Automatic annotation (TrEMBL):
<dbReference type="GO" id="GO:0006096">
    <property type="term" value="P:glycolytic process"/>
</dbReference>
<feature type="binding site">
    <location>
        <begin position="7"/>
        <end position="12"/>
    </location>
    <ligand>
        <name>ATP</name>
    </ligand>
</feature>
<dbReference type="GO" id="GO:0005829">
    <property type="term" value="C:cytosol"/>
</dbReference>
<dbReference type="InterPro" id="IPR003836">
    <property type="entry name" value="Glucokinase"/>
</dbReference>
<keyword id="KW-0808">Transferase</keyword>
<protein>
    <recommendedName>
        <fullName>Glucokinase</fullName>
        <ecNumber>2.7.1.2</ecNumber>
    </recommendedName>
</protein>
<dbReference type="Pfam" id="PF02685">
    <property type="entry name" value="Glucokinase"/>
</dbReference>
<dbReference type="InterPro" id="IPR050201">
    <property type="entry name" value="Bacterial_glucokinase"/>
</dbReference>
<dbReference type="GO" id="GO:0005524">
    <property type="term" value="F:ATP binding"/>
</dbReference>
<comment type="similarity">
    <text>Belongs to the bacterial glucokinase family.</text>
</comment>
<keyword id="KW-0963">Cytoplasm</keyword>
<dbReference type="InterPro" id="IPR043129">
    <property type="entry name" value="ATPase_NBD"/>
</dbReference>
<dbReference type="GO" id="GO:0005536">
    <property type="term" value="F:D-glucose binding"/>
</dbReference>
<dbReference type="GO" id="GO:0004340">
    <property type="term" value="F:glucokinase activity"/>
</dbReference>
<keyword id="KW-0418">Kinase</keyword>
<keyword id="KW-0547">Nucleotide-binding</keyword>
<keyword id="KW-0067">ATP-binding</keyword>
């Protein structure tokens, strides 16, 4: 019997899976993963019921990671109209309990289960995984930053204190964008005219890539017309100069924001970069200004040069982290 229903709910996709029932070995059952468009269902409960009926499972509890702020029993998806009540969803699905967490709490917990094959270093700082003197086998405290662009921009952290893991749930993607050069100041002026206040998410996300491309086109006196993020990456692969520039600026701003997060959290042990856009940008990310802007922090530049930045390539880190949280909850309930 499976122990937990797992969900990773973003602004575009709802991902579901099952976790093994043994809390001592948190495990995502990879064959159980299904992905649906959130637009196809009126509510999370409807999507989850469709999934459970399809796989024929009857789990006892659920861990749902959602792309929005969790306020008590309720969560509102930032980039989609779903409003989720844990209690109403629990009753609709016949579960004994549901734990609602921010999606980047799950992304953070996934870090504790990632191996070297699940990440690609961006820049020259190596990472050798957890099975060594620099990893989980030592007795030291650790602080890791988590930042990743998808439909929105997720931000979190993972702390290890006294051998236990603590994910931080934040809405750090909505901090104000800080331009660093004349071109970015021009971009900010354009986006300020459109949105008023401009957060990092307005640039570092799927819609942010479109915003960047549109602003750069307008600065050049061009009208790009309506585009989707995949249009920009496809045109960049074909050598379109404006699309390539939009990706270059995106990566540079992403690096700057990741570096700011390290300084804010004291996350000297590393930064993990999940998110649906990261794998799509891998052809450009390693050769962009990401790492230069990440390290370019004035008097702290030498310190930043020693901090690894790791693109997450695991196919379902949100569900992996939800499985870790489910095991953690089960251990607490059994204590």
């Amino acid at each position: 019997m499976t122990g937990a229903l797992l969900a990773d709910i973003g602004g575009t996709n709802a991902r579901f899976a099952l976790a093994a029932s043994d809390p001592s070995a948190p495990a995502l059952l990879p064959d159980s993963v299904q992905v649906y468009a959130v637009a196809d269902f009126p509510s999370l409960a409807d999507a989850a019921r469709h999934y459970l009926d399809k796989v024929g499972a009857a789990p006892s509890h659920g861990v749902f990671a959602v792309a929005g702020r969790v306020d008590g029993d309720e969560a509102r998806i930032t980039n989609h109209p779903w409003v989720i009540s844990a209690e109403r969803t629990r009753i609709a699905l016949g579960l004994t309990r549901i734990d609602l967490v921010n999606d980047f709490a799950a992304q953070a917990m996934a870090v504790s289960l990632l191996g070297t094959g699940d990440v690609v270093p961006i820049g020259g700082v190596r990472w050798t995984g957890w099975g060594n003197s620099d990893g989980w086998n030592d007795s030291g405290d650790r602080t890791y930053a988590i930042i990743g662009p998808g439909t929105g921009l997720g931000v979190g952290a993972l702390l290890r204190r006294d051998g236990r893991f603590y994910p931080l749930q934040t809405e750090g993607g909505h901090v104000s964008f800080a331009p660093n050069n004349p071109e970015e100041i021009d971009v900010l002026k354009r986006l300020s005219g459109e949105f008023g206040r401009v957060s990092n998410e307005r640039l570092i996300s799927g819609s942010g890539l479109v915003n960047l491309h549109r602003a750069l086109s307008q600065i050049a006196g061009e009208d790009p017309g309506p585009l989707q993020p995949q249009d920009i990456t496809a045109m960049a692969r074909e050598g379109d100069v404006r699309c390539l520039r939009a990706i270059d600026v995106f990566c540079a701003v992403f690096g700057a924001a990741a570096g700011d997060l390290v300084l804010t959290l004291g996350a000297w042990d590393g930064v993990f970069l999940p998110g649906g856009l990261v794998p799509k940008l891998m052809p450009w990310l390693a050769h962009s200004g990401f790492r230069q802007r990440f390290e370019h922090k004035g008097r702290f530049s030498p310190t930043m040069a020693r901090v690894p930045t790791l693109a997450v390539t695991h196919p379902q880190p949100g569900l992996l982290g939800a499985a870790a949280l489910a095991a953690q909850c089960a251990l607490k309930a059994a204590a």
